[in-house]
Amino acid sequence: MFFLNSIIKWSPVASRCYSHGKVETDEEFDARWVTYFSKPDIDGWELRKGMNTLIGYDLVPEPKVLDSALRACRRLNDLASAIRILEAVKDKAGPHKDIYPYLIQELQPTLAELGISTPEELGIDKL
Amino acid sequence: MQEPHDVFEKYSPELRLLLALEPEPECRGTEADSPRTGPAHCLSSCPWFFLPPATHSRRSWDISQRVGAFYNTLGLMLATRAFSLIGKRAISTSVCVRGGHGVAKVEDYTLPAYFDRRETPLPDIAYVQTLTPEQKALKEKEKGSWAALSNAEKVALYHLSFKQSFAEMNQGTGEWKSVVGGIMFFVGLTGLVVLWQRKYVYGPVPHTLDPEYKQQELQRMLDMRMNPVEGFSAKWDYENKQWKK
């Protein structure tokens, strides 16, 4: 039993075994999505497509990506989608209950600036 | 990102007409005496199966229209070529429905639908499609500063676009209680049926299950020393005529 420890190598959880091809770093991923939502004349379809795709990934988006998305909602005069995005990321965090409060804390300046209420403030996070 | 139509600038006028890049001429219901291989130009009234499936993309729609026109032409050319092999017959020059039928009715199920899903937080369409004047006024107010909206107005705007909140859509139904209850009920009912069967349906058991018969069977097994090493007879004490302790 003892010698097995030296034989089995525990690889880091985040690595992937691509045979070739560059791996996109987290910063590049975030930057790409921030750029996507920052398009000045983004339209409703692009916002929905971007958001649905982002939620499809196995991650909770960074505050800066969400900030960019919320501002896109503002350009589209769509408050409902902004609130929905906040609900969606809270749902996306799943059992990790400390992620959503962190996101709200980071997004507080943006929420205040744009006048977006959180689902909790509006009471729609409860039945 | 380059606009797609740049690619088509270089095409000849005939090819542009063929690929439906020019505005379509009116559909005419002509029946030709001989096969005609003219350009196809009834894209809007073409049966759906000649066009590629609709992508929910505004940009790729005009490309798919052109591709659809191309498919149509291809099908037409193949069809006319096949007929010319058989003989000259009167065929319609386009596979589209013509002669007053017009554009096919748009079915409800082909239009984008509203869904409340965890994995697609922003559905294709808003929940409320036709707005009352008050709702329209609220939408106008939404164009201004959102801080000026009251909480009730924000919730109203939310429910214009979405049917259920995440909390509502994720709530359990309690259906499992009905399922478990149903299972237990039917198992119990089956038990009653089995009991009734035993009493009223089944006949007597064979005589070989009588206690006296079983005793004789047991004696026979011991007499022939069944499994004498580790099994049956090994447990019988032959001297004292009893089971070994």
Automatic annotation (TrEMBL), chain A:
Pfam family, one: COX5A
UniProt superkingdom: Eukaryota
SUPFAM superfamilies for this protein: Cytochrome c oxidase subunit E
Gene3D superfamilies per the UniProt record, alphabetical: Cytochrome c oxidase, subunit Va/VI
GO aspect biological process, one term: mitochondrial electron transport, cytochrome c to oxygen
Protein family: Belongs to the cytochrome c oxidase subunit 5A family.
Upper lineage: Eukaryota, Metazoa, Chordata, Craniata, Vertebrata
Subunit text: Component of the cytochrome c oxidase (complex IV, CIV), a multisubunit enzyme composed of a catalytic core of 3 subunits and several supernumerary subunits. The complex exists as a monomer or a dimer and forms supercomplexes (SCs) in the inner mitochondrial membrane with ubiquinol-cytochrome c oxidoreductase (cytochrome b-c1 complex, complex III, CIII).
Keyword Mitochondrion on entry: yes
Keyword Lipid metabolism: no
Compartments, as annotated in UniProt: Mitochondrion inner membrane
Gene Ontology terms for molecular function: metal ion binding
Any single GO CC term annotated in Swiss-Prot or TrEMBL for this entry: respiratory chain complex IV
Descriptive protein name: Cytochrome c oxidase subunit 5A, mitochondrial
Pathway: Energy metabolism; oxidative phosphorylation
Species in which this protein is naturally found: Oryzias sinensis (Chinese medaka)
Mode of membrane association: Peripheral membrane protein
InterPro entries reported for this sequence: Cyt_c_oxidase_su5A/6, Cyt_c_oxidase_su5A/6_sf
Automatic annotation (TrEMBL), chain B:
InterPro entries membership: Cyt_c_oxidase_su4, Cyt_c_oxidase_su4_fam, Cyt_c_oxidase_su4_sf
Keyword Ribonucleoprotein among record annotations: no
GO biological process, one term: response to hypoxia
Predominant subcellular localization, coarse grouping: mitochondrion
Bilayer-spanning residue ranges: 176-196
Protein's recorded name: Cytochrome c oxidase subunit 4
SUPFAM superfamilies to which the protein is assigned, alphabetical: Mitochondrial cytochrome c oxidase subunit IV
Assembly behavior: Component of the cytochrome c oxidase (complex IV, CIV), a multisubunit enzyme composed of 14 subunits. The complex is composed of a catalytic core of 3 subunits MT-CO1, MT-CO2 and MT-CO3, encoded in the mitochondrial DNA, and 11 supernumerary subunits COX4I, COX5A, COX5B, COX6A, COX6B, COX6C, COX7A, COX7B, COX7C, COX8 and NDUFA4, which are encoded in the nuclear genome.
